Amino acid sequence: MRLPNLLRTTAFRLTLLYVGLFGISNAVLLGFIYWTTTSYMDQQTDMGIVAEADALRDVYRQGGLDELRRIIDRRSAAGDETERVYLLASSGQTQLAGNIKIWTGVSPPGTGWSRIALSANANHHDEEEEAHRARILTTALPGGYYLVVGRELHEREELRRYTLLTLLWALGITLTLGLLGGLVMSRNVLHRIDGINRTSRAIMAGHLARRIPLTGSDDEFDQLAQNLNRMLDKIEQLMDATRLVTDSIAHDLRSPLNRLRSRLELAQLSERPIEEYRSVMEQSLAEVDGLLDTFNALLGIAHAEAGGRRNDWEKVDLSAIVRDIAELYQPLVEDHDHTLSTRVQEGLSLYGSRQLLAQALSNLLDNAIKYTPPGGLIEITAARYKNKLEISVADNGPGIPEALRQQALERFVRLDTSRSTSGSGLGLSLVRAVAQLHHAELELTDNNPGLKVIMRFSEESVSN
C-alpha cells in the first residue's frame, strides 16, 4: 500500500493516537525524572553549603577572627576558584577574606539564601566576561561580621541543561521510533486486511473457489481467515446444492408434468365416455398430488435448514411423539403385510419442534414400509443412553450400501435408478435437515439385514 493511502487508514490513525498517548505518558515520566534529579541536585548543594557554613562558624567560635580568615583564604585558594564562593566582611562591608570582592548582590545579614551574579573569574569583576550565577547563604557572626558561603551554579546549570536536552532527545527518539514502528505494524495489518479484501473482490467477481491465504502463525487474523474460509466453503456448498436442486427439480418434475399435459391433451382431442374422463382426472390428480408432495418436502427442508420458527419450539414429549406416529402408521404397515415392533422408554423429552420431529419420524417409517418386502419387520426404538436420546427405525429390507449412504442423504437422490418405487428422493434429506436443526447426529448403519437409521440427540438439545 502506498504511503498516502496508508496515512488515511484507520490503522494509522489508531497508531497516531497510541503514539500520542504514549508520548504524553513518556513526557510526564521524563518530566518527573528531570524534576526529581534537579531537586536532588539543589538539595545536595544546599546541604553542602549549610554544612560548610556551620563548620566555619565553629572555627570562628573556637579560633577567632584570624583563624577564620586563614581557613577561608586557604579554601579560596585551593581547587577551582569558581566552584566555591566565600566572603568574610566587616559591618562596613569591607572584605576581610574570600574570593568575592564585590559586595553587590549579597543579601543583608540574616536573610538566608539568595543568588548572585559572578564573572567567570570570581576575583575580577569584568562586565565583558561571561556572567555566572552562585547560590549563597549569608549569616551574621558575633562582633558584627558577615559570613557568606556558596556554590557557583555554572556546572550544575550545565548539567541541568544537559539532562533536559538528553530527556528531550529521548522523548523525540521514542516518539519517532514509536511512529515508525506504528507504520510498520499498520502496514503489516493492512497487508493482512488487503488479502481479505482481494479475496472478497475475487469471490464477488465469480471466482468462488478463492480462499483467504493463511500465514501459519495461528494468530487472530489466521483464526478470522479460517472462520471466513469455512463460511465460504459452506456458502459454496449451499450454492452447489441449490444448483443441484434446480437441476433435480427440472429432471424429476419434467416427466410428471409431461405426462399430465399429454393425458389432458388426449382427453381433449375427441369425445370419450364419462368413465374415461373420470379416469383421466383421477390420474391427473394423482400426478398433481405427487408434485405437491415434492414441493411440500422441499419447503420442509428449507424450513428446517433455515432454523425453523424457533419461537414455536417447546419442551416436547418425545416418547409420546414416537407412540403417536407408530399408532398412526400401524394400519399402513399391516396393509403392506409388515410387522411393526415398538420399544419406547417413558419420560423422554427435549427442546425442539414437535411438527418437524414428527415429520422426520414419518419419513423414516415411509421409507421402511416402501423398501421392506412383504412379511418384513420394522422396529421403532426410543431410549436414553447416558446423557443422549436415541430414536431408531430399523427394517430387514435390502438396506443401503455403505458407499452410498452419504449420497442417499442428498436431495432428489434415489438409489432405485429404475424409478420402480414412488417418491421424490427428499425423505432422508428432510430427516438430515431436522437432525442438524436439533443438534442431533444422523447415522445410517447395517441392520443385518436391512437398514437402521439412528437420530442421536445431544445434551444441548436435551437440556434446553
Explained architecture:
It is a single chain. This protein is an alpha+beta fold. The protein has three domains: 10-158, Beta-Lactamase (2-Layer Sandwich); 211-282; 307-463, Heat Shock Protein 90, CATH 3.30.565.10. Helix content is 56%, strand content 18%. The chain is built from ten helices and twelve strands. The protein has helices spanning 3-7, 10-77, 154-204, 220-269, 274-305, 318-335, 354-371, 405-408, 427-437, 459-463, and strands at 84-89, 95-98, 112-119, 131-141, 145-152, 314-317, 339-344, 349-352, 377-385, 388-395, 440-446, 451-457. It has a five-stranded antiparallel beta sheet with strand order 2-1-5-4-3. A five-stranded mixed beta sheet has the order 7-9-10-12-11. The protein has a two-stranded antiparallel sheet with strand order 6-8. Helix 4 (220-269) runs antiparallel to helix 5. The chain is rod-shaped and about 155 Å long. The chain starts with a helix and ends with a helix.
